[in-house]
Amino acid sequence: MPYVRKKGRQLVLVHGEREPQSGHVQQRVLFTIYSKPEALVILGKDGERSARLFEDLVTQQHPELRFDWKTIRGAIQQNLEILPDRYEYRQERLEKTFRADLAAFARQLFLADPKNLMSAANLIKEQRNELELVSELIDWRLELCGQRENEWNGDNEYYWRFSLHGSGVPPDAEELVASYYEKGDYRHAEAGFRLLTECFDRYSEGYNYLGLIALKERRVEDAVKLFEQTVKVGRTLFPKRISKKRYWLDLDTRPYIRGLRNLTLALNQAGRFHEALALCDRLDEECGDDITAFWHRAAISLNLGSWSGAFRNARSIAQIHPDAAFIEALALEALGQRQGALEAFLHGALNSPRAAKMLVEIHQPKPASHHETDDHNGGVLLRQNLHAYLAKPPKGATGFFKALLADPRVEQLLNEVVETVRRWSGERTGDRTAYDRMMLMQSRRFAEAEAHRLSDLVVGTTEAD
């Protein structure tokens, strides 16, 4: 637990940490108190609000530690007399580190002259994406520095807010880099997130983003390693005591759970099915995330040819995640239950018409709306997660589902639901007609009724087989 000790004419808040290799305890300085006026403000001389501000800032800077503030205040009070009456805070807390790091960065740029040295040119070229990001950040910082001071951006005379800026990535910096990812500019996004993870060693989300980029670029084994790092770092962010039911409610647990989810996804896509199944158990038992565990178990079971397992897991969540209805349909078809497969496939297709056609390799034009784009992306993800099944589906399965989609009645249903979604997304009035129709058509009971009406398709394809 952190405590106060004397260091010359200063007081330092320190924490003892044991070195893994030697076992020796080393003191890490968390904060230095330089003057008596500053110490008195910490003790509440200017009111409890200033004292509370200091404690909150220190706690945010070191969220992994627990502070006994009553004892810390007592130690400061006992040692007030060793502190000087004045201190030059601007130079120490505002300028010193920034100027030193700026000079070190500038020195490297001065020395790396591409005009005079090819090795320097190659080095600059290799770091081009990072340098472009830093250049944009510099322009942004310079643009904003002309604003007026107010209660939200002001600091006190001791520069607490500047020196105790928190242990996490500044939100605007993360926003900047994430904007590249959202735009599909993975070159700059990857450079940015790599730089952020090097600057902030507890930035679990950075590894998660890097893993997602690797997955999109089909570097699956790289993605596995990055998601493993997401999980490892994310686990260190957990509060000291937290119940399983609060895992997803606490912001600090989310990088860890996202990492587990995406690691399961990547392991499945890498064909490491049994490792992925073990993670499903962790998601379920450790995190209480049973819905995600069911989805992944369904996909993995289908890849392994475990039709009953795929059906059970997919069926349990198909009404929450209609894309699981496709897995349910493929499993039922493999089990010889084609009427049930028709019902499940219709349920999935009426929610994701493009994905349905992508599963059986029916060519389609480019998406024309954000709904169609989401549908297309869902189809891509399904194909990636069902890769082993789709590489060698049961005999007749692909023909069965292609025949369903080729039937004019099914085609009419899918065209209607596409048009209904389009009308709903364009509605700006209180008219709920399109919305109500869309919700009905995408429900399980509607798929069941239509499957009953189309039962002749099952008889026809069975005879053809």
Give me some keywords for this one.
465 residues; mainly alpha; Serine Threonine Protein Phosphatase 5, Tetratricopeptide repeat; 3 domains; three-stranded antiparallel sheet; 25 helices; 66% helix; elongated
Describe the structure.
With 465 residues, the protein is mostly helical. It has 3 domains: 3-82, no CATH class; 201-287, Alpha Horseshoe (Serine Threonine Protein Phosphatase 5, Tetratricopeptide repeat); 289-465, no CATH class. Helix content is 66%, strand content 5%. It is built from 25 helices and 3 strands. A 3-stranded antiparallel sheet has the order 1-2-3. Helix 6 (128-144) crosses helix 9 and helix 17 (338-351) crosses helix 24. The radius of gyration is 29 Å and the shape is elongated. The protein starts with a strand and ends with a helix.
Q: What letter string, H or E per element, gives the SSE order?
A: EEEHHHHHHHHHHHHHHHHHHHHHHHHH
**Uncertain regions: pLDDT < 50 for 5+ in a row?**
none
| Overall pLDDT metric | 91
Shape, per Cα inertia axes: elongated
Query: Count of helices?
Result: 25
Structure summary:
The protein is mainly alpha-helical and 465 residues long.
Helix-strand layout with pairing:
Elements: E1 3-7, E2 10-18, E3 25-33, H1 36-42, H2 48-61, H3 69-78, H4 89-111, H5 118-126, H6 128-144, H7 160-163, H8 171-182, H9 186-199, H10 204-216, H11 220-235, H12 254-269, H13 273-286, H14 290-304, H15 307-317, H16 324-334, H17 338-351, H18 353-359, H19 370-385, H20 387-391, H21 397-406, H22 408-426, H23 433-441, H24 444-453, H25 456-464
Helix pairs in contact: 6-9, 8-9, 9-10, 10-11, 10-12, 11-12, 12-13, 12-14, 13-14, 14-15, 14-16, 15-16, 16-17, 17-18, 17-22, 17-24, 18-19, 21-25, 22-23
